[in-house]
């Protein structure tokens, strides 16, 4: 069975692309913290995984997830062989994801003010009106 599930943070914004046949796909990288911190200074404290996702999931990733977001990725590990520009045979490993879920809220949500947000309460309090956060009125 070939199954991989990871939880980590996007290291860069996803690249949303389209194939010549019109199918959309997204590529991104996820950093997953290691459970045991390295003993030697300078060793990486995370593992990095390249991820590719297709179709509607790719559209979701490309439109809603950005660098730094916490995500879960469920898919299968795949390898592919290719020849680089210098003619050297290479092998690349990546996760071909079946599902990707955002596990946190974007940081911009905190700056948007809603009727029940602390910013709304603060502006109401500054205008001299009494604000009751438990009232049914908006």
In a nutshell, what does this entry contain?
This protein is mostly beta strands and 138 residues long. Helices cover 14% and strands 42% of the residues. It has a five-stranded mixed beta barrel with strand order 1-3-4-6-5.
Q: Could you name the CATH topology?
A: OB fold (Dihydrolipoamide Acetyltransferase, E2P)
Mean pLDDT: 82
Hey, roughly how much beta strand do the residues contain? 35-45%
**SSE string, helix = H, strand = E?**
EEEEHEEH
Helix fraction bin? 10-25%
Rounded radius of gyration (Å): 22 Å
The top-level CATH class is: Mainly Beta
Count of individual domains: 1
- How far is it from the N-terminal to the C-terminal residue, by CA? 53 Å
In words, what does this structure look like?
The chain is mainly β and 138 residues long. It has a single domain (4-126), classed as OB fold (Dihydrolipoamide Acetyltransferase, E2P). It is built from 2 helices and 6 strands; from the N terminus they run ββββαββα. The chain has helices at 55-64, 118-126, and strands at residues 4-10, 15-18, 24-33, 46-54, 70-83, 89-102. It has a 5-stranded mixed β-barrel. β2 (15-18) and β3 form a beta hairpin. The radius of gyration is 22 Å and the shape is globular. The relative contact order is 0.18. Mean pLDDT is 82; it is low at 109-128.
């Amino acid at each position: 069975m070939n199954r991989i599930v990871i939880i980590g943070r996007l290291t860069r914004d996803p690249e949303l692309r389209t194939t010549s046949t019109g199918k959309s796909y997204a590529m991104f990288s996820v950093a997953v913290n290691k459970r045991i911190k390295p003993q030697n200074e300078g060793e990486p404290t995370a593992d990095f995984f390249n991820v590719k996702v297709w179709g509607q999931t790719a559209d979701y990733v490309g439109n809603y997830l950005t660098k730094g977001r916490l995500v879960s990725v469920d898919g299968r590990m795949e390898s592919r062989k290719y020849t680089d520009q210098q003619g050297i045979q290479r092998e690349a490993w990546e996760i071909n994801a079946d599902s990707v879920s955002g596990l946190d809220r974007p940081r911009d949500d905190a700056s948007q003010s809603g009727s029940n947000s602390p910013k709304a309460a603060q502006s109401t309090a500054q205008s001299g009106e009494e604000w009751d956060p438990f009232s049914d009125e908006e």
